[in-house]
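User: What would this chain look like folded?
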Amino acid sequence: MTAFLGNILGSLLKFIYDMVSQIGTEPANFSFYAMAIIITTIIFKLILLPISLHQSKSSKKMNEIQPKMKEIQNKYKSDPQTMQTKMAELYKEHKYNPASGCLVLLIQFPIIIAFFKVMGNPTTFAFRDPGVYEAMNKTFFWIKDLNNPDPYIWGLPLLAAATTYLQSKTMMTATATTDPQAQATQKMMNMFLPIMIFMAARGFAAGLALYWVISNTFSIIQQLVSNRSLGKVKEEN
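Assistant: Here's the prediction, encoded as structure tokens.
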């Protein structure tokens, strides 16, 4: 599945590269390849936008009814059958499908992995002629070749970590919960995930780190807009 999706996304990257390479003279420090990665990442995120918005709404709804869920669980903990019936009634009342969040993740996961493969192995999925790929200009400002890791830790690795942290923070705002255990887990993830991304990005091809930064930036903007929109809807209700 991921190989099939990788070929599709790789073809998109190659198509975008062919398009931008025809716009005129290539800037010395901002290659057509870097432009193609950025544009392809944005298109990729736009394709997933309806799924992401549905996931945000589902998470928001789940957190809104969580206190009532806890109340039912505590009240009928000795009667699982009644608990299940009451939970089903609660979901129906609030038009919430508990499986929707998992379904959204299952749809997104193979696509994200496929795109990750494309960025990590461009000659396999996008530029199948190794000679053409090797001859391409792959500069991005201070990075001479996006096929190699960023030579500076303050560059894309740090940006990848910072945008990962900001994305986690915006997600925490959207999915704020009163459950102390869930809050502790969220805070721990928000601390350790950026560190893991930073360490990994130091060894990744810089093109892959660039994709991660652009993807996170898009998600941050999307989540901020979504949080604001959902907040307005809640106020109106």
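The chain is about 75% helix and 0% strand. If you want, I can go into more detail on any region.
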